[in-house]
């Protein structure tokens, strides 16, 4: 087979050989040019150096004359500078002059300069010794002769270097001219050869390839009956034509590969509809599914919106990696119950959604919501902690609560928002009235946030007295919202809202700072108790922040008592225990508030090592009427005493209650009998005056405690 490639390869080899030959000649010529130019540069540098030497010897001569005329430090320094410069330039000239016919002349100049310097030193010494006549003689005779001889040598050497520079410059010019002429000649030959090769390639290669390309285009358009010409050729073109027949056979294989590509694209599309972290369907997938669900109103369905509770503290306390672990664990639980739950999607953050076929009866949706609450509320193990989250679930029914995806999602979202006002494991069905409630609650959120920032929520002080004798020992700090339009708002209205929107801890810090400012002049024997919510005890930094505030205002930590409810003990046992331990290590006492009404056990009293328990006010009702509360209260006091705990009774409103508690050994008491919560000014007056009348009944006066100056 005649090989076009071989022919072209031969031409390429010939062209390459010519190219390399010419390139070698050109490179050789350029090398010679470069060497000549380098030599020329060196010769010019030598000429410059010799001329510099001649100038410096003249300047040195002038410096000698200056020294003779004015023997001073400046003249001596100038002569020394000129001498050093001349020595340095001669050294440079020696370095520039290679071994050869001119090197001896340079060496002789260097030796003559050394002799010249010695004579110069004698002249300087004579001047220094005050022999001006001797110095002048040396200057006019020996130094004059040496200077003239040195100057003649410099001129002769400069002439030689100039001649060399002219010769090397001429050589470089001739070499460059040769290279230029040669390159131009070879370029003309190359242009002619290129033209001839183009004609050959066009006739033997390009034109046949154009024909093959047209045939390929027809084949790609599905014309399998296309006629391919050139198959009879015994070269590469013929081989290409014959290969096209094989291409027809491979068309079916290409089609199959295309189908596999479409499948891969479908897999990528599925990935685009699923959450990368949890593997659950994402919002896009869920919205598309809702579109299919709402397309047929004859098939009822339920949509559930899920928002996790206590998830933000997990991120804040343990980091976002821990939050990812929680979300992944919940996703695995959802997928394990997919048959009961239907389709569960992660919409973003800690928000999930569920859709499943359901009857118009609410019971099926309620059962699914209850199952979700159970699944979510189970403890989740992290690397070094166990956390528990809850969920608020809103339920919307199709088509009753909405006929479009957007309407159903909004209805479920509003129901979920309403569910957030309840406890853990709660769910709510959509009710049109919810929207009004949600708007009102949103306004409440904004109002509370503004009130915290504006300082409208202030501390009130309720007296705490010693049961034995009625001595004032401290106050419980109570929050009151002085609303610009509604007056005094009680804490049960705004504290849950502040906790929900995440500003409760900031409010606690602000209240404590205000307490510290207001009690600066109060007796140091008085104590103050503040309340911490369960959510605040999940913050490991709260103890150090509270102590920092006390330190800033110079309030001893021993004067502060933190009260927690029994419910706080079951939310996060480990973290709560660590926080309370840090508080006690810093001198802050810890009291268990509302004892007997929550979930505390004897084990909690042992594990947490409280300083005080506070008996809830509900147990003080009916103490004079032989109720069971009497036995319960006495048992609580006995239990506290056996554990070496201080006992405070809340809600004392009658003298008889006070008398009973005194007889049973209760330590402290608070309630309306001793005083309601009051502003700082009234509390200050109470400290100064001691007793007062309440309800028209005389009672023992509170002992007056002197104010600090």
Automatic annotation (TrEMBL):
Positions of the GGDEF domain: 299-432
InterPro entries named among the record's database cross-references: Biofilm_reg_signaling (IPR052155), EAL_dom (IPR001633), EAL_sf (IPR035919), GGDEF_dom (IPR000160), HAMP_dom (IPR003660), Nucleotide_cyclase (IPR029787), Rev_trsase/Diguanyl_cyclase (IPR043128)
SUPFAM superfamilies: EAL domain-like (SSF141868), HAMP domain-like (SSF158472), Nucleotide cyclase (SSF55073)
Domain HAMP: 203-256
PROSITE patterns: EAL, GGDEF, HAMP
A Pfam family it matches: EAL
Domain EAL: 441-691
PANTHER family: BIOFILM ARCHITECTURE MAINTENANCE PROTEIN MBAA, DIGUANYLATE CYCLASE DGCP
NCBIfam families: GGDEF
Name used for this protein in its record: EAL domain-containing protein
């Amino acid at each position: 087979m005649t090989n076009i490639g071989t022919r072209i390869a031969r031409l390429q080899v010939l062209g390459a050989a010519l190219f390399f030959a010419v390139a070698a000649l050109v490179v050789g010529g350029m090398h010679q040019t470069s060497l000549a130019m380098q030599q020329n540069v060196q010769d010019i540098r030598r000429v410059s150096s010799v001329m510099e030497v001649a100038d410096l010897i003249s300047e040195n001569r002038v410096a000698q004359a200056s020294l003779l005329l004015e023997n001073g430090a400046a003249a001596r320094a100038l002569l020394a500078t000129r001498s050093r410069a001349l020595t340095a330039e001669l050294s440079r000239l020696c370095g520039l002059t290679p071994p050869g016919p001119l090197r001896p002349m340079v060496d002789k100049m260097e030796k003559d300069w050394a002799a010249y310097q010695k004579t110069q030193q004698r002249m300087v010494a004579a001047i220094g010794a005050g022999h001006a006549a001797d110095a002048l003689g040396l200057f006019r005779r020996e130094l004059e002769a040496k200077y003239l001889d040195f100057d003649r040598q410099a001129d002769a050497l400069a002439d030689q270097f100039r001649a060399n520079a002219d010769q090397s410059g001429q050589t470089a010019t001739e070499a460059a001219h040769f290279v230029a002429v040669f390159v131009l000649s070879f370029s003309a030959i190359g242009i002619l050869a290129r033209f001839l090769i183009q004609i050959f390639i066009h006739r033997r290669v390009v034109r046949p390839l154009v024909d093959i390309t047209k045939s390929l285009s027809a084949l790609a358009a599905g014309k399998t009956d296309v006629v391919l010409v050139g198959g009879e050729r015994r070269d590469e073109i013929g081989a290409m034509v014959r290969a096209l027949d094989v291409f027809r056979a491979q068309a079916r294989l290409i089609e199959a590969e295309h189908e596999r590509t479409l499948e891969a694209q479908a897999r990528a599309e599925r990935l685009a509809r699923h959450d990368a972290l949890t593997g659950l369907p994402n919002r896009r997938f869920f919205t598309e599914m809702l579109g299919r669900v709402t397309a047929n109103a004859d098939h009822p369905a339920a949509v559930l919106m899920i928002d996790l509770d206590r998830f933000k503290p997990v991120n804040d306390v343990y980091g976002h990696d821990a939050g990812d672990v929680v979300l992944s664990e919940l996703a695995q639980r959802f997928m394990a119950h997919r048959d009961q739950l239907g389709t569960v999607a992660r919409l973003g953050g800690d928000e999930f959604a569920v859709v499943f076929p359901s009857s118009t009866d609410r019971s099926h949706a309620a059962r699914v919501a209850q199952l979700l609450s159970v699944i979510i509320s189970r403890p989740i193990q992290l690397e070094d902690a166990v956390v528990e989250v809850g969920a608020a679930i809103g339920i919307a029914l199709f088509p009753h609560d909405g006929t479009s995806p957007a309407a159903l999602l909004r209805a479920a979202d509003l129901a979920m928002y309403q569910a957030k006002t309840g406890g853990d494991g709660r769910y709510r069905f959509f009710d049109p009235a919810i929207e009004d409630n949600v708007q009102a609650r949103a306004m409440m959120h904004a109002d509370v946030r503004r009130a915290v920032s504006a300082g409208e929520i202030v501390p009130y002080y309720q007296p705490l007295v010693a049961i034995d004798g009625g001595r004032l020992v401290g106050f419980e700090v109570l929050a009151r919202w002085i609303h610009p339009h509604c007056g005094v708002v009680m804490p049960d209205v705004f504290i849950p809202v502040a906790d929900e929107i995440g500003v409760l801890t900031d409010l606690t810090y602000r209240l404590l700072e205000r307490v510290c400012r207001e009690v600066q002049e109060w007796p140091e024997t008085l104590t103050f108790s503040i309340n911490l919510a369960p959510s605040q005890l999940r913050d490991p930094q709260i103890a150090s922040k509270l102590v920092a505030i006390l330190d800033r205002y110079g309030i001893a930590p021993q004067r502060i008592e933190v009260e927690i409810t029994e419910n706080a003990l079951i939310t996060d046992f480990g973290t709560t225990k660590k926080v309370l331990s840090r508080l006690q290590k810093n001198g802050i006492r810890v009291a268990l508030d509302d004892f007997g009404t929550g979930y505390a056990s004897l084990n909690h009293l042992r594990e947490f090592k409280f300083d005080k328990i506070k008996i809830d006010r509900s147990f003080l009702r009916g103490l004079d009427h032989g109720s069971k509360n009497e036995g319960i209260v006495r048992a609580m006091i006995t239990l506290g005493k056996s554990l070496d705990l201080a006992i405070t009774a809340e809600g004392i409103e009658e003298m008889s209650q006070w008398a009973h508690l005194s007889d049973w050994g209760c330590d402290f008491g608070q309630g309306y009998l001793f005083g309601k919560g009051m502003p700082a000014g009234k509390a200050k007056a109470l400290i100064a005056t001691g007793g007062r009348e309440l309800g028209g009944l005389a009672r023992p006066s509170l002992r007056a405690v002197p104010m600090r100056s």
